[in-house]
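Lab notebook, bench 4. Still working through the backlog of constructs that have no structural model yet. Next entry is a single chain of 132 residues. Request: give me the structure tokens for it.
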Amino acid sequence: MSEANWSVENDKTGNGFKIFRDEVLESQTATTGGRKFDGNKLEYGLLPPLALKATVEVLTIGAQKYERDNWKIVPDSKRRYFDAMQRHLWAWKEGEQNDSETGKNHLAHAMCCLMFLYEHDIMYSLNDGDVK
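Model written out:
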């Protein structure tokens, strides 16, 4: 159930979202009743669901084409994924919405490449000599 629907169904004062927000904030410090101490924690629900789904679809195609997690061991990964990301962004910028090989949106491919770049920058190629 979405926040908006929840608020409307339980709106007793006409303040809608404010009631929902206040109830959540109170539950984070409550000592009785329904409580969940999740204040100041990551909110994965903020991820845009359509972009996330499209990215996972591209990742699934890649796992089937190459193998699962193959992106972790690609030599010269930062340069190659940067180049691939740029190709997808430029194809989209020039008006081509979907990749001709996969039929998936170029932006989803670019998001995968950006995620790979981030992972390689932070974890997988810290000592491999790639230029940052």
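Notes after review: The first helix runs from residue 3 to 9. The chain has five helices and no strands. Flag for follow-up if needed.
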